[in-house]
């Protein structure tokens, strides 16, 4: 029996089978902010065959070891998930965003006149950087401590505080997802122009990795951490 059907939600599939994110990414299917769509709905949105998508997913599942590098988030405490996000994804952003900034400024100054998309890349990256850093501060200084408080003292009052700003955080995620989509669009899926220098190559490669890490980051928050809290509060 095949493990996945067209009625499974995209986010839930990635939660139980993380490698599914590779297939969704290659088909431009949003598995983080759009994780509540079924595979059928997501495929229709991208005008691709849901049946072919399911065939790909189930074939990859059978070929893979689904337990390799798999984290069963259902067994993890809220505090464990919060610490994982901070130590893995937040730390990466705090290091990568300032380090990438001068390289983007450099290719704008050197190549901006010839390759006009670079100006848009610079503007979008600055928007992304501002949005993400403000988002990290809100999570680390306000919302995550409230979630950890609920983990220590699970009462209705602490749960109410733990979910107090999750709607806003999900809206932040949507904004970030839109910027990432626009970056991919203006770079023509990070296709380098002819004769691109090494700095140009470096920027596109690191932007693509930034996208990949951020989508995984949002997926864990939206479809695992926040969803569990909302379900308890409902």
Automatic annotation (TrEMBL):
GO cellular component: cytoplasm
Alphabetized InterPro entries for the sequence: Hemerythrin-like, RIC_family, ScdA-like_N_sf
Protein name in the entry: Iron-sulfur cluster repair di-iron protein
Molecular function terms, GO-annotated: metal ion binding
Every Hemerythrin-like domain range: 87-229
PANTHER family on file: IRON-SULFUR CLUSTER REPAIR PROTEIN YTFE
Keywords associated with the record: Coiled coil, Cytoplasm, Iron, Metal-binding
Entries under NCBIfam families matching the protein: FeS_repair_RIC
Coiled-coil intervals, chain numbering: 159-186
Superkingdom per UniProt: Bacteria
Pfam families associated with the record: Hemerythrin (PF01814), ScdA_N (PF04405)
Record localization: Cytoplasm
Family annotation (SUPFAM superfamilies): SP0561-like
The keyword Iron is annotated on this UniProt entry: yes
